[in-house]
């Protein structure tokens, strides 16, 4: 069977979707040794064509920048995008047990990708906000699959509907399943993330940036993302660079003395300049001392040393802060089993019943009233099978006690 070639440029390898309004193809360059695959979107319906042409050409956001080619033939509009790399998110969530750190990184990637296309109309964002239109690369990075399949009867979309879909995807990420459900999976969703998902699924956000701002304000973000972020690394390197090239006070004063001697201004130097600089140095030192904030230290106690299945265990926060005017303002408990988060809490005391034997990891992160957070305090707990204790019943040979 002869392969179809479109615009004498792209040879069709496979039809991914087709109806009377549009088609979606996997293709390669025709007459070329380059074997890279691409996604070729074919739009037949005039209303859909007007929508995609205006968005792809004039949005000037992340989506228009990855548009590789576009052309029109006999009233049919074509748009070429890179072929999706990685694993579809639906498949990824089904096959991998994600840690809380993995979930935070993937959620941040999700929100950042949609902030990159915030100039696209809500309909375009709505189409891309789908587990099958997102690909996971190297376990934490996300890319759009660029599979544009429009519902002709549902072209009037506002951001509230995008918000609902995004909330559902975040719920699926933290529930670690493509069938995420807020009520069924509420124990797997951290308390700080739950209200964000709830608000998003209610359609109450007006932009992805609003969701991202709430996400960034959580203790989870501070713990798992902020310290490792590129911006933070750059900031720390800039501070180091400034410190590296600061001229020492003795060297600076010596230079000023030599200069003053040369120009006959020694009286001014000793009478005004040096005391002024020394005073300024002391003031700077005082300011630095005032703004310093030691991070708190997380720690907790356990009510039972040897835990059997069915036991109710109490974990009490024993964290401390060395700063006299500071206190513990927030905390996050996390319980993991076999690498999967099964419970979260932000209460001062954690109560949990271990119904299933196995290996668990309990961690606590705390934050003080000035915003500094601790390193995680982690305790590995092995829950044992509850032993069968036989009932002591008197037999026939038991003495008759009167």
From TrEMBL:
UniProt cross-references to Pfam families, sorted A to Z: PKD_4
Domain PKD/Chitinase: 297-381
SMART domains named in the record: PKD
CDD domains on file: PKD
Keywords: Membrane, Transmembrane, Transmembrane helix
Chain ranges passing through the membrane: 252-270
InterPro entries referenced in this protein's UniProt entry, alphabetically: Ig-like_fold, PKD/Chitinase_dom, PKD_dom, PKD_dom_sf
SUPFAM superfamilies on file: PKD domain
The protein, known as: PKD/Chitinase domain-containing protein
Organism: Lutispora thermophila DSM 19022
Lineage of origin: Bacteria, Bacillati, Bacillota, Clostridia, Lutisporales
């Amino acid at each position: 069977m002869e392969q179809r070639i479109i615009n004498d440029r792209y040879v069709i390898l496979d039809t991914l979707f087709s109806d009377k309004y549009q088609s979606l193809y996997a293709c390669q360059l025709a007459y070329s040794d380059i074997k890279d695959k691409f996604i070729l979107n074919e739009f037949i319906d005039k209303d859909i064509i007007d929508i995609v042409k205006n968005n792809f050409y004039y949005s000037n956001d992340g989506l228009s920048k990855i548009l590789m080619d576009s052309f029109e033939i006999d009233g049919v509009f074509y748009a070429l995008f890179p072929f999706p790399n990685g694993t579809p998110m639906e498949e990824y969530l089904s096959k991998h047990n994600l840690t809380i750190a993995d979930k935070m990184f993937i959620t941040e990637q999700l929100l950042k990708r949609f902030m990159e296309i915030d100039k696209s109309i809500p309909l375009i964002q709505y189409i891309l906000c789908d587990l099958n239109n997102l690909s996971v690369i190297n376990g934490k990075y996300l890319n759009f699959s660029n599979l544009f399949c429009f519902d002709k009867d549902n072209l009037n979309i506002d951001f509230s509907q995008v918000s609902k879909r995004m909330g559902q995807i975040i719920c699926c990420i933290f529930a670690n399943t493509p069938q995420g459900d807020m009520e069924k999976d509420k124990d797997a969703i951290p308390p700080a993330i739950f209200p964000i998902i709830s608000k998003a699924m209610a359609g109450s956000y007006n932009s992805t940036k609003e969701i991202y701002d709430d996400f960034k304000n959580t203790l989870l973000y501070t713990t798992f993302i902020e310290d490792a972020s590129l911006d933070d690394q750059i900031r720390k390197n800039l501070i180091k660079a400034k410190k590296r090239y600061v001229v020492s006070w003795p060297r600076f004063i010596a230079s000023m003395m030599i200069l003053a001697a040369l120009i006959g201004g020694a009286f001014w130097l000793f009478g005004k300049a040096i005391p002024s600089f020394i005073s300024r140095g002391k003031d700077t030192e005082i300011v630095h001392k005032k703004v310093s904030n030691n991070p708190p230290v997380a720690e907790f106690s356990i009510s039972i040393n040897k835990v059997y299945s069915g036991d109710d265990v109490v974990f009490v926060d024993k964290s401390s802060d060395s700063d006299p005017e500071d206190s513990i303002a927030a905390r996050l408990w996390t319980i993991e089993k076999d690498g999967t988060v099964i419970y979260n809490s932000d209460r001062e005391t954690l109560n949990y019943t271990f119904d299933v034997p196995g290996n668990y990891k309990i961690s606590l992160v705390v934050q003080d009233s000035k915003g500094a957070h601790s390193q995680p305090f982690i305790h590995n707990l092995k829950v044992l099978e509850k032993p069968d204790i036989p009932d002591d019943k008197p037999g026939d040979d038991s003495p008759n006690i009167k």
